[in-house]
Design a protein that fits this description.
There is one protein chain. The protein is mainly alpha-helical. It contains seven helices and no strands. The protein has helices at about 5-20, 25-30, 35-45, 50-60, 75-80, 90-105, 105-120. The longest helix is centred in the first third of the chain and has 16 residues, at about 5-20. It is globular, with a radius of gyration of 17 Å.
């Protein structure tokens, strides 16, 4: 297993790829590697070179700095203590919900948010 930063970068890679609705195969084809290599990057087993990170950032339409956003000792520790697959935004249902939410107009989005808050007992939803 790679070091903590490799794991953190891999999680950011997976999150962005899924948010865009890309498969590992599609991303791999774009940057010229096999899908198994993307798998290894995403789990932190293989380190991402600077050149490959640049290619990935171009393919995923984010600046290279995106992969390091939020990187701190605390963030790395939290990312590595999460149960495998337990990351809220890595779930397919979460991504489906977010995509559907942003297809709505402003007013229906506000109403849906109010509904979600009311179903939570009116309590603030923590990030």
């Amino acid at each position: 297993m790679g070091n903590d930063i490799d794991v953190y970068l891999g999680k950011r890679l997976r999150r962005r790829r899924r948010l865009l609705g890309l498969t590992q195969q599609q991303l791999a084809g774009t940057v010229g590697v096999r899908f198994q290599q993307i798998q290894k990057y995403e789990c932190g087993a293989n380190r991402i070179s600077a050149a490959r990170l640049w290619q990935l950032s171009e393919a995923l339409e984010v600046p290279v700095g995106y992969f390091y956003d939020g990187l701190s000792d605390r963030a790395v520790k939290e990312a590595n203590t999460e149960a495998e697959g337990g990351e809220m935004f890595a779930r397919k249902e979460t991504l489906d919900l977010v995509r559907a939410y942003y297809l709505l107009g402003e007013r229906p989005r506000r109403r849906l948010l109010d509904l979600a808050k009311s179903l939570n007992g009116g309590e603030a939803i923590e990030a």
